[in-house]
Amino acid sequence: MSSNKKYWKSVEELNENSSIVEALRNNEFIEEIPVGDFLGDKETLESTSTSRRDFLKYVGFSTAAASLAACEGPVNKSIPYVVQPEQIIPGVADYYATTVFDGFDFANILVKTREGRPIKIENNKLEGAQFAANARVHASVLSLYDNMRMKNPRIAGKQASWKDVDAKVKANMADVASTGGQVVLLTNTLASPSTEKVVAEFLAKTPNSKHVVYDAVSSSSALDAFEAAHGRRELVNYDFSKASLIVSVGADFLGDWQGGGYDKGYTAGRIPQNGKMSRHFQMESNMTLSGAAADIRIPMTTAQQKQALVKIYNIVTNNSVGTTKIVGEESVIKAAQQLKAAGSNGLLVSGIDDKNAQLLVLAINQALGSQAFLSGGTRLVKKGSNAQMLQLVADMKAGKIHTLIMSGVNPVYTLANSKDFVEGLKKTKMSIAFATSEDETAAISTIGAATHHYLESWNDHMLTPGTLSITQPTIRPLFNSRQFQDALLMWTGSDVKFYDYIKANTSSAFPGSKWNQMIHDGVYSAAATSSIGAGSADYSAAASALAQAKSAGEFELVLYTKTGLGDGQQANNPWLQEFPDPITRVSWDNYLTVSKADADKLEMTNRIVADGGLNGSYATITVNGISLDVPVIVQPGQAVGTIGLALGYGKTAAMKTEMQVGINAYQFYKDFNSVQSASMKKGAGEHEFASVQSQKTLMGRGDIIKETTLEIFNTKDVREWNILPMVSLDHTPVEASKVDLWESFDRSVGHHFNMSIDLNSCTGCGACVIACHAENNVPVVGKEEIRRSRDMHWLRIDRYYSSEDTFAEDLEKKEGFDGLFGDNGSLGGFGHMEIAADNPQVAFQPVMCQHCNHAPCETVCPVAATSHGRQGQNQMAYNRCVGTRYCANNCPYKVRRFNWFLYNKNSEFDYNMNSDLGRMVLNPDVNVRSRGVMEKCSMCIQMTQLTILTAKREGRAVNVDEFQTACSAACSPGSIKFGDVNNEENEIAALAQNDRMYHLLEHIGTKPNVFYHVKVRNN
Q1: Residue 292 class from Cβ within 10 Å (0-12 exposed, 13-18 middle, 19+ buried)?
Q2: Is-contact 522 98, C-beta < 8 A?
Q3: Distances 933 to 864, 882, 1007 between C-alpha atoms, Å
């Protein structure tokens, strides 16, 4: 029998006349759903096109939310999709193939979106996708959500509408037609066939107009040389995988030289296969990524590099152009002789800003018949002309330019003679600057035209001949911006949208191509990359001119671009500012790199202060009459008589205060020459650096970095060069890996994840570091916290220098210690090993949580916040963590990070997590940690579980090598591999059995699930 009892939910219901009870009885929701707050009025709604990218209208329970104060806390109002797009499933990521090209960086990528928000960049691995993302490309997704972006067009510095802009431009163009004034389009390199066609049509309809291409970091010398020899203004796309001997004279080809992207081909030959690997000679002034990877590195000034290039030319081509004696001449001659012997398997590259030097590069490679040179084809990623840009500035100063339309350039910041440019800009009747932010140039132009971020744009790019890469929007424009191409079309009277223009142009230029398939793949190859035919130029005259090179002035200032900021376009990106430079390990700064010999002579020093921060002297440098005080880093491997300084810093316009760091080195970039004569003296005071790793050495600890030579690798037993650590068990030496403090349990059932890191192929590029940031919502802490050793990077790339000429000599020195005291005692000896050699060997080692099967952190946690998972991951339960930090103290790898502060929604840390716009980049699959807890690498457990669930939902087994982490997916050279070691078909299983495999600090018995491969040098 049922009960007739009556229950009340509250005392209020006992009052029959209560209006509250009546309201609740008749209405499920007390307040109406605020649809109008989100969708706006009818006019606004009708003016917006609905598509899969219209997240602002449809996103519902993620972005379109408003918070109201209430007694119990904030109330989040949200609404569901009005019409749910078929392509979007809440909680499931979508990926769109696109291409980034900004005149400096370029890559074929996939963009991961969640509910319409781009949140991560990944590499497009389809056939035809040639270029992988570097650290800056991975960070570019955060630049989309930059609060300092220009949100509306501006006229004379005041906000305006596009209607006003169009009217002003059309009136100006009418004045141009009537007066015959000159119109100049000033752009960065346009690798887009459709954009170049739009520009050509604009010029055809505008009398007395021209197009000037300007690259902030110029490759004009190489372009001029190739044009002289081959009749085309292109760069060589070298195929490093086909070179067994590589000689580089001043070219950081593992960095930004010619746009980068050579690391995959280079590292393909650096893994010992069948007893062979490539050999690499590097001649350079600054210590670079390429110099760090070289087997034999020869520090020398640029003047000496020019002499070295002539000597190599003489030996390879049997010429006898007179040269002077240089530092390291024996090594140069050795390199030249081996290069000649290598023949078609040899390759020479050079980054010297001199047309004659670049002509000799072409001559030497043609004489060798180099397959890496001849079969690589060309790149169309740089087209700028130094001469045209200098002429434009002269014409502007002379008042000859009526209208200047700029896109993708910021000459007020990047030109050495920017004062002349500003003076000329004032003499133009109209200047229009298309820019994503109100930068230095847009701020003083007549019209600042807010333009799209590339993730909001349509475009096409021909990065190499015969290929086409598509750029498609992954989100609707966040602000009232317009593409440069759409504006040109409109101003020439066309009503065609640039999307339709691209589609039509592609169909005619690439007959047989399918538009939808191109959009899906992001790339299209119409034909194989053409090889480079024989060219002709006056190479002998070039060699004779180059042989006259002499050092000018007291020092050579060598300007370069850092791995983090590049040319400075993303200087307001906190991920890149906090990214430690791979060589110096300093973030949030640029600085002078000075050799120890020169620093000692001028009494300039670096020192570690009480709180662990790095301080350094200031130097006063004078270049072309300009004097500046710049902080100094004493850099091992810097050529004596040279100093290095990075471009891309010192920006102030459209920059948050925290990001306004460093000095603008472009003001020294006179005539687009990266080498300038300079004088230097010690300045006053000290500079505070944010360094995550001071210049510490290996200190003889051979179980951290293990390395050997190719000769030993080929001729000796594996246990001689990959020594297993031994411990004593019952007074008998046994392998450390076979002695356990704990009983192990069976891990052969199910998945068991391992990670492999090959020290031979790791170039220190840092793409993995930024990818980890994006995937795991790692916070930015700022310069002051970095100085206190409170960086939050889940993945770091340690850089080691040898204290002797080689790491092998370091080990010999350590083995020769006798007692504690004296010149040969271990106390003084280890102190000496902290000092890097003048030209040290370098090793990079990515280190993250090692996910030990016998983890020291797990045994000391008093609340069991850290524990071991069945699949091999060391896991963190953040809600259990009370911040004792016992685990960090007990971790031998120092990979755990204590979250000292609430970095999210905290005005003290004014970075991306402090704004609603910046937080749109956050990955909803990973929680944002609060203060007071430990955090570390999770081996991207959200990614591994998604792979398992996806396979389960599709009713299949996980595919071979389907498992990935953020770092392994981002590593284009393939030095980081991840997978299930229990599946013998996976690559990781074979790597775990490789002779070169070892574990970090194996003697302590932690049994990590991350392992490394011994570094082999071919010297």
Answers
A1: buried
A2: yes
A3: 13, 6, 25
Beta strand 245-249 with 346-350: parallel, antiparallel or unpaired?
Answer: parallel
What pLDDT was estimated at residue 671?
Answer: 92
The candidate with the shortest Cα–Cα distance to 464, out of 238, 268, 255, 290, is 238
pLDDT tens for each residue of 611-636:
778 899 999 999 999 999 999 999 99
Q: If you write DSSP's letter for every residue of 132-180 in order, what string do you get? A: ---HHHHHHHHHHT-TTB--S-EETTEE--HHHHHHHHHHHHHHHHHHT
For residue 966, give both structure tokens.
Answer: 């953020």
Q: Is the dihedral of CA 890, 891, 896, 897 positive or negative?
A: positive
- What are the residues facing 148 on neighbouring strands? none
Give CA–CA dist 283/608, Å, rounded: 31
Q: Record the tokens describing residue 239, joined without a space.
A: 């195929």
CA distance 97 to 107: 11
Q: Exposure pattern of 666-698 as b/e (b: 16+ CB <10 Å)?
A: bbbbeebbbbbebebeebeebbbbbbbbbbebb
Residue-wise DSSP of 438-490: --HHHHHSSEEEE---GGG--EEE-SSTTEEEEE--SS--SSS---HHHHHHH
Q: Which residues contact 933 (CB under 8 A, 6 or more apart)?
A: 865, 876, 878, 881, 883, 898, 899
- Sort 791 into a burial class: Cβ within 10 Å, 0-12 / 13-18 / 19+: buried
Burial class (CB in 10 A: 0-12, 13-18, 19+), 554: middle
Beta carbons within 8 Å of 46's beta carbon, 6+ residues apart? none
For CA atoms 1004, 1007, 1010, 1013, the dihedral sign is: positive
Task: For strands 732-735 and 606-608, give the pairing.
Answer: unpaired
| pLDDT tens sequence across 866-887 | 999 989 999 999 999 999 999 9
Looking at the DSSP assignment, which residues form a beta bridge with residue 235?
379
Torsion of CA 252, 253, 259, 261, to 10 degrees: -140
